[in-house]
Amino acid sequence: MSTITDVARVAGVSVATVSRALRGLDRVSPATRRRVLEVAEELHYVASPTATSLASGRTRVVAVVAPFLTRWFFATLVSAIEKELRVHGHHVILFDLEDDTYDQRLPLTQNMLWKRVDGVISLNVPMTPDEVELVDRLGLPLVSIGSAVPGRPCVRIDDRATMRTAVEHLIGLGHRRIGYVGDVPANAAHTQTPQDRLTAFRDTMQQAGLPLVEEWILGSDWTARAAAADSRTLLASADRPTAIVAASDEMAIGVREAARRLDIDVPGRLSVIGIDDHVLSEVLGLSTVRQDVAAQGRAAADLLLRALVGDEDGVAEDDIVIPTVLVPRESTGPAPVS
Amino acid sequence: MSTITDVARVAGVSVATVSRALRGLDRVSPATRRRVLEVAEELHYVASPTATSLASGRTRVVAVVAPFLTRWFFATLVSAIEKELRVHGHHVILFDLEDDTYDQRLPLTQNMLWKRVDGVISLNVPMTPDEVELVDRLGLPLVSIGSAVPGRPCVRIDDRATMRTAVEHLIGLGHRRIGYVGDVPANAAHTQTPQDRLTAFRDTMQQAGLPLVEEWILGSDWTARAAAADSRTLLASADRPTAIVAASDEMAIGVREAARRLDIDVPGRLSVIGIDDHVLSEVLGLSTVRQDVAAQGRAAADLLLRALVGDEDGVAEDDIVIPTVLVPRESTGPAPVS
DNA sequence: CTGAAAGCGCTTACAG
DNA sequence: CTGAAAGCGCTTACAG
User: Fold this and answer.
1) What is the pTM of this model?
2) Which of A160, A304, B46, B314 has the most CB atoms in a 10 Å sphere around its CB?
3) For B223, which residue in chain A has the nearest alpha carbon?
4) pLDDT band at residue A125 under the 50/70/90 scheme
5) CATH fold of the domain at A4-47
6) A-to-B residue pairs, Cβ atoms closer than 8 angstroms
7) Measuring CA to CA, which residue among B117, B127, B120 is closest to residue B147?
């Protein structure tokens, strides 16, 4: 493979001129530029990114940090981010910080970032003070999705408003006995979104003057499998709610399966709604409040790119809030007359 | 942040010695090594990967190329690969080659690979001759998962045996009228796995002396949503099969939903089985033939690492075949007595 | 508009 | 066992 020196030699110019011509800088005569471009093409020249990085101090790579890549939400984000960045000449190095235990994750280290990336996008991973300090010390712009880092821009949905939409949908259908799945222990690795959604559930119920039965608020690890197990006892009891709102579609799927196994008709005797519009929710007929995950990924990528290209100083500090929308389907219906 | 020169200065040795000491090369006195290690620690020194790459010619980065990252199978692979490589000091640059149209994908380019990665792992993307030639020209080792590239190592499952297992499960339950979902047009971007599975379906049916009804072999784009739509007409007809084998769990989920909407009891009047053991299959009670996707990712990563570390010459050429296993659940049952 | 030269921060023979 | 020096392939002032 040829280097910039090869191109310079056959084009009969200096490497400095080749460098300028190829990067479209001004102060190169049109004729020279044309000649250089031709030769570069002819030699299949592609600049060594590693040499470019060393000389320029910029890698055009961004770190994308995810807590679990295997879940739909995160995979969808990564896909959208990667495509958006690639269009703008940047690449993504992926870090899947998932640990063996649910409550922990691997820490972000200097090794992962230093001189390797120009910035980082963190996907719903609440950064520790140490990690924030590290990113600061390395001078890297940071954009987060989901859980905000104070003082840094964040792309997210309005978790409270979204949950309120779900609950009000059920209330509008006449439900008064409503349960909740998706409470999370306070020491869990990811708490912000769960807490916001649960808070909104409580608030909405209270404002509607509906009973808040603590036994109907169930903990779960946000997987479908766990949600099915976690909701089983409640659904099997005689005195059960007529509707359940799950803090995510995956959990809603689990709840609906638990109901099916107990032969409880959905939505005849039990309504179930989630949040997300998971890729399988439509085919499963699950009512939900949709969030546009890919749009969040693109927005975060754009925010970071703006900081990297640097026509402005640093990253804008504003949050970007992507709207959500109710998508009623077949898993919710009128409250049964008791 | 400090450089190797800083470390050399405060340790009172040359940069060459620092380089050797830090990389654990021999020919450094224990005392010197200890001193260098201390200073490096003290200064929070981390070598610039970009400078290391330029000097050594190795990036310790591998390209992972996926056709759609948002599907469970691919996300699971990427996650497993990333973790395995990271343990061995390598990082992943991700390329999501998904295009807007289903039948196409973006091509691999020199820009993505040249001096940027040391090797590539391709996830079920059939490489074009041009792409293979490119990878060769750049001297990059290549490991594929799923669809083999001639002469290169490949990690995969035995698609035919796996499909045979699924079909024989149905036959064992007394089914004789069996349909198939997952045929794919010959010009699709991904054909190997679909073709192998369909071939195995035909062969197994034939060997069992069962009727092969062409109208019961349905095309689909391998999503749950499409499979639900694609199987609807067949399921609604009076003369329908008593069992359907889908070439993937996602399609099986779609088929089962189509059945549910038509009020066809599963497995009472229709058995459905897929292939994968998708993350949601257990909670949905879907019978399937399980493949260990993470194991495939790890195996591919290890294969590539062996070529990169280079204690052997090049990558071993053998395929690695990961076994699959029948997981009967609630979506399959005895054939209804007609 | 163009070139010579320094510099980015490492690794790697080569001497000693 | 250790150091001086060349080299990896670019970019970037600085001159002209």
Assistant:
1) 0.93
2) A304
3) A280
4) confident
5) 434 Repressor (Amino-terminal Domain) (1.10.260)
6) 140
7) B127
